[in-house]
Amino acid sequence: MIYRPGRIFLSVPQMGGHEKNYVQKAIEDNWVTTAGPNLPGFEHDICQHTNARHAVALSSGTAAIHLALRLVGISAGDEVLCSTFTFVASANPILYLGASPVFIESEAETWNMCPDTLRSAVEDRLNQGKKPAAILLVHLYGMPAKLKEIMAVADEFGIPVIEDAAEALGSRYGGHQVGTFGRIGVFSFNGNKIITTSGGGAIITAEEDLANKAKFLSTQAKDPAPYYQHSEMGYNYRLSNISAGIGRGQMEMLEVRVKQRREIFNYYRNQLESIEGIEFVAEPKTSFANRWLTTILLPEGHKPESIRQALEDENIETRFLWKPMHLQPLFASNLYFGDGLSERLFNCGLCLPSSSSLQEEDLEKVVKNLKKLLEVV
Ligand SMILES: *Cc1c(COP(=O)(O)O)cnc(C)c1O
């Protein structure tokens, strides 16, 4: 990535201030490893905020998805119904287990998994004698998916749900935090997310045995013996106590960060919605979005790449929307159910700078340039 001073970034970390106290204490007490008091501390904070019963802190969101799939019993040859409109890290862990993703298109209101398409896909796979082994749904850009309708399909057919809430920590649906609807919810604390541990992730669940199993598998699945004995395949996926210390400081600021990101979204919308043809994703009545990234659909006649390049020349970072998984060469041979909505969004959408640390003058600069490029004065 090109760095020039004064660059306006898409999404960068913002420290709250207390992170270094937790990290310093960990160093003083020599808890510089994947055990130590910041881990249960951070997990407690996650549970407090989400109202989840159990949380397990892990080394990344991708690792968390991999473990979640393993915990609900996914194995080689299984099919997992997965949102197509997402980042590749949602789908890669399905491949790690030798299973196949079957991609489900979005609906237009939230851009997330369409419950009707999901139902058609389940029925189709059942007709083929292949019962889907799990549903992996994503809350993209922090906007909650249509959970009520999706959970109804999942419950009707008895299919476990994993929520990829990597981008959606702090978002709510029907008053409840996302990640608490499925059997397992996943968060990411990568540097570009709403809060960060520099790199990290977590799962949340209501089931104590799943949480215990996650701790066991994420620390090499060591049997209770005085020597190193293993009956199951494990992973080295535990978060470090240093990273968890950063996480504890960050959790103190989560609500403020959500407020800041929502204010950024409102600013862009107020300034830009008068441009003919521009579109923002509205928040349905059921939902409260953390607005991790503000996304827009460009008016007809404008291409994301030319706008992105022109803003780049002004030292402003913007990005394409995620390229749907069913269009990725990696997944060329996987099944897809849908009507192409995400491809149309990909072809006319853009993510705007949304860092919580953005200053008013930064936002004014982005808006001024966008108005110029979309030719309104
Ligand atoms: C960031 C992200 C992940 C992966 O999280 P990491 O911590 O980067 O491994 C998974 N799914 C989605 C939708 C993401 O945005």
UniProtKB/TrEMBL annotation:
One Pfam family from the record: DegT_DnrJ_EryC1
GO molecular function, one term: transaminase activity
UniProt entry tagged with the keyword Phosphoprotein: no
Keywords, sorted A to Z: Aminotransferase, Pyridoxal phosphate, Transferase
Gene3D superfamilies in UniProt: Aspartate Aminotransferase, domain 1, Type I PLP-dependent aspartate aminotransferase-like (Major domain)
Keyword Transport: no
InterPro entries: DegT/StrS_aminotransferase (IPR000653), PyrdxlP-dep_Trfase (IPR015424), PyrdxlP-dep_Trfase_major (IPR015421), PyrdxlP-dep_Trfase_small (IPR015422)
Origin: domain of life: Bacteria
Protein family according to the UniProt entry: Belongs to the DegT/DnrJ/EryC1 family.
Xref: PANTHER family: DTDP-4-AMINO-4,6-DIDEOXYGALACTOSE TRANSAMINASE (PTHR30244:SF34), TRANSAMINASE (PTHR30244)
Protein name as annotated: DegT/DnrJ/EryC1/StrS family aminotransferase
